[in-house]
Amino acid sequence: MHQAKLLWTNLAFFSITGLITGIAAPLYAFLVGFDRWQLLIALLLLGYAGMSITMGYHRLWSHRSFEARWPVRALLAIGGTLAVQNSILHWSSDHREHHRHVDDNTRDPYSAGRGFWYSHIGWMLREYQPDRYHDYRNVADLQTDPIVVWQHRHYWPLAWGVNLVLTGLLGILHGDLMGTLLLAGVARLTLSQHFTFFINSLAHIWGRQTYSEQNSAKDNGLLALITYGEGYHNFHHRFASDYRNGIRWWQFDPTKWAIAGLSWVGLTGNLKRIADERIERARASLQMSKAKSRFEALPNAELLLSQLQAEYDSLLEKMSEFYTTRKRLLECKRRSIESGELAQRCRRLKSRWRQQRRYWNHFMRQSLA
Ligand SMILES: [Zn+2]
Ligand SMILES: [Zn+2]
């Protein structure tokens, strides 16, 4: 079979940064050592780059699951260049194709069907989809955002600027240029990249399918720890427009917390959430079909299946009753808040009008006397 063209620059880039991280950085740690300040800078830059990808590239731009004011968008666009994963436009275009054609080995850019290596990094080492490379039609909506266009135009100067110049300056300030470049520059970059790559590879291989078996995406709490919440990938593929990936309070999803936190101060808004009932239904329906196929193989299948169906119907009925009533309760609460506000306004207007009436009567007494 004809092999796709090798992308030498990408291969060289991943090899050199990988070797520096695997060999030069540990050697430097052993011979010279890194101090706490360098570790702190590396961790901060790691978090900044990673969250810019998950919150910015992924949930804001690729899926438009919330809106953000320009200072937040600018910060995320610059942080994205720190992660060296190509421009917002390019990344989002790939990612939308991934969702649209998930697991399709020719159309999903990082299809997990082609194995761990391909979906992790292999897809970037050869030009597998040359006709799609500069085709940004599926991200036309993003081209109305001047920050996205600006970042795409100046991507490489920005990427060199933050990765080399900024870390270099921090190193000079600290007094150990080489060590800071090795740790906060290269090693931090390599880690940050592979943490993201794990979402395309491991999150499609290892974990549970909680909401859908239509594609290979998995929910994995461990993976969420190093991917700022993106480990809940089965939920994400089922409900991609939701700004959350970990929907339970105990699920680790700092990207969700940051988006929600910023909305309290008005920096993000229009946070999209799938209704709880739809999520619960998807979960129950998948459990139901799993149980059905297990019971069908058993000797007393008929009895078990009818029991299962009865329990399931009862579950859905109670679920639906609860959610309908809760909706009505919320509606009432909203109305009672509204009526409280109206009553307050009414009292204010009444006293304003009465005052004016007193004045008017006084004025009339004088005018008509
Ligand atoms: Zn995926
Ligand atoms: Zn996605």
Characteristics:
369 residues, mainly alpha, two-stranded antiparallel sheet, 13 helices, 66% helix, 1% strand, binds zinc ion
SSE layout:
Layout: H1 8-31, H2 36-62, E1 67-68, H3 70-82, H4 88-100, H5 116-120, H6 146-153, H7 155-174, H8 177-200, H9 221-226, H10 233-238, H11 254-264, E2 268-269, H12 276-295, H13 301-367
Antiparallel strand pairs: 1-2
This protein binds zinc ion (2 copies).
One zinc ion binds next to helix 2 and helix 4.
How would you characterize this protein structure?
- By secondary structure, the chain is mostly helical.
- It has 2 domains: 8-274, no CATH class; 277-356.
- Helix content is 66%, strand content 1%.
- It is built from 13 helices and 2 strands.
- The protein has a two-stranded antiparallel sheet.
- It is globular, with a radius of gyration of 28 Å.
- The termini are far apart.
- One zinc ion is lined by residues 98, 204, 217, 233, 237.
- One zinc ion is lined by residues 58, 62-63, 95, 99, 236, 240.
Structural class estimated from helices and strands: mainly alpha
Helix run count: 13
Strand and helix order: HHEHHHHHHHHHEHH
Question: Unreliable stretches, pLDDT < 50, 5 or more residues?
Answer: none
Strand order of the largest sheet: 1-2
First-residue to last-residue Cα separation: 108 Å
What percent of residues are in strands?
under 5%
What is the average of the pLDDT values?
A: 95
Rough outline? globular
The unique ligands bound to this protein are:
zinc ion
